[in-house]
Amino acid sequence: MSGVDGGTDGGGSIDDGGTPTEGLLFTFKTVPEQIPGTAGGQFQARIRSAEFKLSRPRAIGDAAPGDSRTTRAMVELEWGEDDDDSESASAELVFPRAPAGIYSWLRAEVVEYEISGTVTVDVDDTPTVVEFEVEDEPPGDLSLEIDLNRVELPADIQLWRIAITVDLANMVVDLPWDDVPADGEGKRVVDRASEHIDDVRDDVTNAFTSDDDNDDNSLAM
User: Fold this and answer.
1) Cβ(147)–Cβ(162) under 8 Å?
2) Which stretch of DSSP H or E encloses residue 73?
3) Domain span at 202
4) pTM, 2 dp
């Protein structure tokens, strides 16, 4: 996965630098805070990059029941390093036509995700740093339902930010990496055929949470 395909919102205002100036802006930050970054745990996991493709992300509120003003076709969230080892960060979702009102939920379906990095495992009784990859395209709906705690988009504010935390660390630190088979290059891979993938999917559905400090996030210009 690469880039961001946000679908079409229509309307709204964007400045010359491509920054939205109206509506509802969701920003996504990670645990650990920096990617690449250390997740820790028994296997000293370090996350190099992560990507999530979300289908039909939609903000649900009293004035917006998930209609075209607060629904996107698709969004891809990326953190970490690109293939050329340069840092990338594409972790925003904006609804420039979102009406003022109370918002209770952000909902979406996870259609694909990847997390890569390193873990330390025993190889011939020697602690060894190896590559890992979690890669999954769930066969059915893997739904996100993020409680926004009834955050308000005021009528007199042009742009309002809602911060969402994504706990990447929890998706990898508890996996039994010593027991995960290595591929031909020694990489430990958890994919849709792995016996551990159901545990990862459970962690994914619980990983996205609204921050507690979303009551004063005006970005009006």
Assistant:
1) no
2) none
3) 23-37+52-114+140-170+197-210
4) 0.85
